[in-house]
Design goal:
The protein contains five helices and five strands. The chain folds into two domains: 1-60 and 131-149, OB fold (Dihydrolipoamide Acetyltransferase, E2P) (Beta Barrel), CATH 2.40.50.140; 62-129, no CATH class. It is of the alpha+beta class. It has a five-stranded antiparallel sheet. The longest helix is centred in the middle third of the chain and has 32 residues, at 62-93. Strand 1 and strand 2 form a beta hairpin. Helix content is 48%, strand content 23%. It is rod-shaped and about 70 Å long. The N and C termini lie close together (11 Å).
Length: 149
């Protein structure tokens, strides 16, 4: 997956890049797991000697895209199912409305999984490489021309 952004600043060998999320990018969320912002800033290693104002091409390999999607979609789905089953069984055990208890625990488990994912975001990026890389620089071009292409 490729995106385009503008280098806002360069510091300590890193480039801070401003991006406007495309529809595919917003579905993935690897750059900012769980964030819903249409515009974002991301700090990336400046391996291509980009300067402030440059337009850069950023890539997240497909395998990393799939890992991010699995984290954002499969983990909450599994916790939803576990919460529903657990809540339903607890409702039966305590002789209360099992369907309502199952629905409530399912929602609580799902919310808890999203909160956990957000808290563990830095660890995910570091340990399984969910961070995009700058692969090209386009000097002297306006960022809006390339943003989202």
């Amino acid at each position: 997956m490729k995106e385009y952004g503008i280098v806002l600043s360069v510091e300590n060998g890193n480039a801070i890049v401003g991006l406007k999320r495309s529809s595919a990018c917003s579905d993935c969320g690897a750059c900012e797991l769980g964030s819903n912002h249409s515009k974002m800033e991301i700090t990336l290693a400046n391996t291509v000697d980009a300067k402030p104002g440059d337009t850069v091409e950023i890539q997240l390999p497909t395998s990393q895209f799939l890992k991010a999607s699995a984290i954002l979609y499969l983990i909450p789905l599994v916790t939803l199912i576990i919460g529903i089953v657990l809540g339903h069984n607890l409702g039966k055990y305590f002789n209360v409305n099992a369907d309502i208890i199952g629905a409530i625990t399912g929602v609580l488990f799902t919310v808890g999984s999203y909160m956990s994912i957000k808290k563990l975001e830095p660890r995910f990026k570091k340990n399984i490489g969910l961070s995009p890389t700058i692969i090209a620089v386009y000097r002297g071009m306006k960022g809006d021309e390339y943003n989202g292409k």
